[in-house]
Amino acid sequence: MSEHVFEMEQEPTLGKVEIAPEVIEVIAGIAASEVEGVAQMRGNFAAGVVERLGKKNHGKGVKVDIREEGVAIDIYCFIQFGVSIPSVAKKIQENVRQALFNMTGLETSEVNVHVVGVQFDTAKQEHENE
Asked: How far apart are CA 50 and CA 107, in angstroms?
């Protein structure tokens, strides 16, 4: 289990503080989805089924890699049509980096944003054409 846990190096405390990668995934997923212009996070089929059953999966579309140089995070998301992809990607990187630092004190070595699709707001466009 210890190979899947990030041990924090801080001032002396009452004991050891460990953060599971799943916690980092959830924090990064929420921070990325809060950025204006992000339509949705990418998930797999199982995550979609679980979400339809009522449980929100905040870690979907996020991959965490704990390396010696630091924490590397990959964000996979769909962007809304009509927004500037580079500016939204930069905001995602800043928001994820800041949220992780504020909540865990961890510095990220890299936050990679992978835009896997563009979401068109067809329902809104159909309503405007009526």
From this structure: 31
SS3 call for 127: helix
DSSP E strands, 54-124: 62-66, 71-80, 108-119
- Using CA of residue 26, residue 31, residue 34, residue 80, what is the dihedral sign? negative
Architecture of the domain defined by 19-129: 2-Layer Sandwich (3.30)
SS3 104: helix
* pLDDT of the residue at 11: 64
CA distance 116 to 100: 23
For the chain, the average pLDDT equals 80
How do strand 38-41 and strand 62-66 relate by DSSP bridges? unpaired
Of residues 50 and 68, more confidently modeled: 68
Residue 126 has pLDDT above 60, yes or no: no
State residue 69 phi and psi, 5-degree precision: -75, -20
Chain length of the chain: 130
Q: What are phi and psi of 19, to 5 degrees?
A: -120, 125
